[in-house]
Protein 1
Amino acid sequence: MSTQARSPRVAVVGAGSLIGEAVIAELRARGFAASSLHALDEMRDLRRLSMGEGEEIVVGDVEAFDFAGADLVFFCSRPALAERHAATAAAHAWVIDGTSAHRARPEVPLVVAEVNPQALDAVGDRGLVALPSSASVALTTALAPLASKAGLERVDVATYHAVSGGGRGAVDGLAAETIGLLGGRAVGKPRFGEQIAFNLIPAVGEIGEDGCSAEERRIAAESARVLGLPDLAIAVSSVRVPVFFGHGLAVHAQFARPLEVAAAAEILRRSSGVFLVEPNARSPGPTPVAATLAPERVYIGRLRRDPSRERSLNFWVVADNVRRSAAHNAVSVAQILVNTGR
């Protein structure tokens, strides 16, 4: 987009998905100055989006859209759509790809707005930007301010993925399973291969020959890249839990230099994008429910010294995976691109 065009023409591909709807809502909540908004999706997912107060947005067919008519394109759809259309769109516009289609390409910037916005310096007036997975966004947003103070040597993290990471069908599936089981009915074909209601599934994504799941490998690679620490030792275990929205992460971080709990707490209190939840008699720390009620931040709690390792802290992280880690990050990246006047 030229530096003179201050109100970009915006397209949202996958507008009917949970993240697509959240991106549109985030654009509106921030008063993003778009001269036009094109809501797009596959033919099978065409629908009308209710925006409240009687307003609806009609979703159009992405296959019929001319990307020369857009300056800023969000991909919130299946990776296959981004693989098919992102390169075409990037010839005319900034493309912010929230799918997994381009995350592993080293020549494509992988960006968390609060952590490594400098990665956007390589982007001109058009081009492709990839966004990490929701768990990676939450993890790096929490780690970055601490790493900048004390360095970072190793991270062990267990992630607890809400079902909404699997899309609208997964949310509906958990609801149906829960209602059915409470009513004494058998569970139909499970969305995640096994019953998820009242259950835990100890893997997210396909498990490879090394015993690691696709999501575990993705979080490790994305987090090291976003933090600018390619040699960071990071071990990930991912679990699918019967929660609708809000990923949780139990983090164990070892630093290069000593970092006391009080100093770490003060750093987090001063950092943008995160909120340190102080323990109290009513609650030991943030929960997915609380995070979805106020999804504008990544929440950190249970901050404490790790007695088993030197220079180490343990803490708990929660973020709304759809609205905070996905939609908020996507629109924040867009605002950086637009506001820097490139």
Protein 2
Amino acid sequence: MKEKFRDPQTAIRWLFAGFTLLCLLAAIVSAILYGWTASDVCEGLGRICTQSGQTVKSYFDSSYGGFGGTFLNAALVCAVCLGLFCLPGSKPDGVSVLAFFLTAGFCFWGTTILNIWFSFAGVLLYCLVMKKKPGAMANAFLFSTGLAPLITEMLFRYPGEAWHGFTGLGIVLALAVGIFIGFIFPAVLPHSPQMHKGYDLYNAAVPIGLIAFFLRSLLYKIFTPAPPASENVGLADSFVPVSVGFCLVVFALAVVWGLALGGGKDYGRLLRDSGYNVDYGAKYGSGAAILNFGVYGLFIVLYYLLIGAKWNAATLGCVFCMVCCCYKGSHPANVWPIMVGYVAASYAAKFVCGLTGAEHTLMANAQAIVIGLCFANGLSPVTGVYGWLAGVVFGMIHYTFVTCVPLLHGAFCLYNGGFTAAFTCFLFIPVLEHFCKTKKERKELRARK
């Protein structure tokens, strides 16, 4: 049995299945502890599916999904994703881990069991036209949900500003937009690494962000005057025991599993890896990769606890949106400089605002910055290739961009932070390459002296 789990594809599927079951278990336990019936949980799930993807309240709030409805939504979406990775032709790898946990993270704010199907229809149409097996396109199915809030807008609000129920026009609009997204996304995705030279781990953020930019311009500038004002996610609520408790269970089990598979002996080498163009599961084995999932996850939780982040559903989702890169390039050793950069930038901005008399609202524990940091870890290859100082600087640059980029896509793109990381690379990777040497180059120069 142990040898069976050493196979990367098998281990990845079991990792997905384990998380799905833990979400379902959390939904059941939450319902029992808070006295919710099955009907209450389903009603909570219904409220999640029929509200804006950018909401003032956390999904955990009882007037929205509650704990039971929120975890049930995550369990159902994850079960669908797991099913895709079990189809013929599917070969889950490090990118699949990124796609799965990125989608899982957004199940806590933005992605629902209702709004995923419309872009899925577009990817399915792409498979039929291009004669590809749906299982082989499982990653594309999951990444296409990056515009899930826009689908919800089409379904329940567009073209006006009033929120309404299901209508024939809403269904047609959502299906049309979803098919457009899902059909062109797989064609654009392969070109993404060439744009940022492989330094942004969130490859899917580039095509999703550009598609969002186009659709925002078309739908809300050409056809209607302007998009509705976006709302902040999860303000003024914090559910520490539920959020932190769930994370500790997930990541502690992953650490135990990784050690049981013998990952401890290779984990030291993994921590010294640059994270550039790598798949940890293929390079170091399933044990080390799963161990990294657990250790890196606990590291993220510790960071959010230290900065005093509010543990609402959005923050819980951020943890899994961040840990999703555990197979493809991120680990504690190449992410801590980016975290330091974010904290340093927030204090530098506070100091400057103090001199100018301007109000400073973007400290490291502000919700927008907490969400931004979770995607800034996509720049971890910069740290791995150029060193910790480059990581600190790129973290500060990402902090500067992250609250401005939503103006391009109307806050409909869930992958805003990954899109921001791409912009950071577009502008500053050429600067880095022109003026700086990589760690490897510096080491070779020292050896010659």
